[in-house]
Predict the 3D structure of the following.
Amino acid sequence: MNSRNTKGQFVSGNPGKPKGAKNKVTSEQKERIEKVLAMLDETLDEDLLKMKSKERVDLWAALQEYIRPKLQRTQVEVESTEEQITKITFEVVGSGKKEENRGTKDEGRETK
């Protein structure tokens, strides 16, 4: 049975690859990666404790993009005026969580 017409197009009646069917190579690669991850899981806690603080912070920051949405970057254009800009304020909105405002130490004085 010829599954293509004279133009090289598939003829009707041939459903092709079943929906959801996995590629054999992809399945084998996935299994190998899962084995490697299982091996690494066993030593992960120990490895994290051996890392320097900066390395842990860098790893934490790198992993955040996989579980938290990134803030959208926006470009702001400011027209030049006679007045000098002395202060720019950024506000984060829409977090959905209300946190207690904790003071931070800034140049030796506590601010809230």
User: Anything to note?
Assistant: Confidence is low (pLDDT under 50) at residues 102-107. The two ends are 78 Å apart (CA to CA). Strands lie at 104-106, 109-111. The longest strand covers residues 104-106.
